[in-house]
């Protein structure tokens, strides 16, 4: 398959079908084959992703939480989403069990189904990210190759792997859904960490440790703040003193004479 960049620029070759001109002599758009989809053509849009990011005052990205069941992916992602929302940022949170209620309810937990689960989640996360949202995904996503597949679909700097580095014993002691107990009793097969592997990331952008430097357990808030500070430090979030286009437009509507007073923002 041709790289996405090539497809988007219309320079795909190989399986694509290109006809030079239509009956009016106009050059035809080049169509290509991607997977099982034939005769398709990338549609450029009028409002760019950059335009949306200016509107929102943030850079779209995917924060890919990965870790054992019970490691706190959902808890920390929810806490982080709350912190970001409080600061006026648009977020989206795709959570494992929720997605399996709808989009992925046809999938089970075999290796092939887990891979397809992650592929679909990745594609949905990319759509949100391309709309400028700080997009969080909360899935065990145990296989390195699956996470790498999503990373490869993103541009450098857009995909941040967040490794919940919580020991199995801690996760098993928490066991809020009783799943480890069932897996130990043989009632659930292919359970990650018990009879199915978890492949820890080799070079994650963020490692969330269970304990602090004094050996004390870290709270979900401390973990979420660690991620927030990284986003701030690395320029994903605007300087709060700079108004967003959205805020400026809201104020413009407020003032009938159209004169902006940025001091009010
Ligand atoms: N930092 C923490 N300290 C103590 N308890 C925590 C922490 N983070 C999460 N927990 C608790 O651990 C349990 C599991 O958390 P959570 O459901 O977020 O895990 P998960 O990684 O999303 O698991 P799953 O993959 O099964 O969805 C919850 O009861 C949660 O309250
Ligand atoms: Mg969860």
UniProtKB/TrEMBL annotation:
Its EC number is 2.7.1.25. It comes from the Eukaryota. Residues 59-209 form the APS kinase domain. GO terms for biological process: sulfate assimilation. Signal peptide: none annotated. Pfam families: APS_kinase (PF01583). It catalyses: adenosine 5'-phosphosulfate + ATP = 3'-phosphoadenylyl sulfate + ADP + H(+). Pathway: Sulfur metabolism; hydrogen sulfide biosynthesis; sulfite from sulfate: step 2/3. Keywords: ATP-binding, Kinase, Nucleotide-binding, Transferase. GO terms for molecular function: adenylylsulfate kinase activity; ATP binding. InterPro entries: APS, APS_kinase_dom, P-loop_NTPase. Residues 1-20 are annotated as: Disordered. PANTHER family: BIFUNCTIONAL 3'-PHOSPHOADENOSINE 5'-PHOSPHOSULFATE SYNTHASE, PAPS SYNTHETASE, ISOFORM D. Belongs to the APS kinase family. Catalyzes the synthesis of activated sulfate. This is Adenylyl-sulfate kinase. It comes from Chlorella vulgaris.
């Amino acid at each position: 398959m041709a790289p996405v960049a090539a497809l988007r620029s219309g320079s795909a070759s190989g399986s694509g079908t290109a006809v030079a001109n239509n009956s009016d002599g106009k050059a035809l758009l080049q169509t290509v084959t991607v997977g099982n989809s034939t005769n398709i053509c990338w549609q450029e849009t009028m409002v760019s992703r950059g335009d949306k990011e200016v509107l929102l005052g943030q850079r779209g990205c995917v924060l890919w939480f990965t870790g054992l069941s019970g490691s706190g992916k959902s808890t920390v992602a929810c806490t982080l989403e709350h912190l970001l929302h409080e600061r006026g940022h648009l977020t989206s949170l795709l959570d494992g069990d929720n997605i399996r209620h709808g989009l992925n309810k046809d999938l089970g937990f075999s290796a092939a189904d887990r891979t397809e689960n992650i592929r679909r989640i990745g594609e949905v996360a990319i759509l949100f990210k391309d709309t400028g949202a700080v997009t969080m995904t909360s899935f065990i996503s145990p296989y390195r190759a699956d996470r790498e597949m999503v990373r490869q679909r993103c541009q450098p700097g857009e995909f941040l792997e967040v490794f919940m580095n919580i020991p199995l014993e801690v996760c098993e002691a928490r066991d809020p859904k009783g799943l480890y107990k069932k897996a130990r009793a043989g009632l659930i097969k292919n359970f990650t960490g018990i009879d199915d592997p978890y492949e820890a990331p080799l070079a994650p952008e963020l490692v969330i440790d269970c304990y602090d430097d004094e050996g004390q357990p870290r709270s979900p808030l401390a973990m979420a703040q660690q991620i927030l500070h990284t986003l701030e430090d690395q320029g994903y979030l605007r300087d709060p003193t700079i108004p967003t286009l959205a805020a400026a437009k809201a104020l413009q509507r407020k003032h009938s004479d159209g004169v902006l007073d940025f001091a009010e923002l």
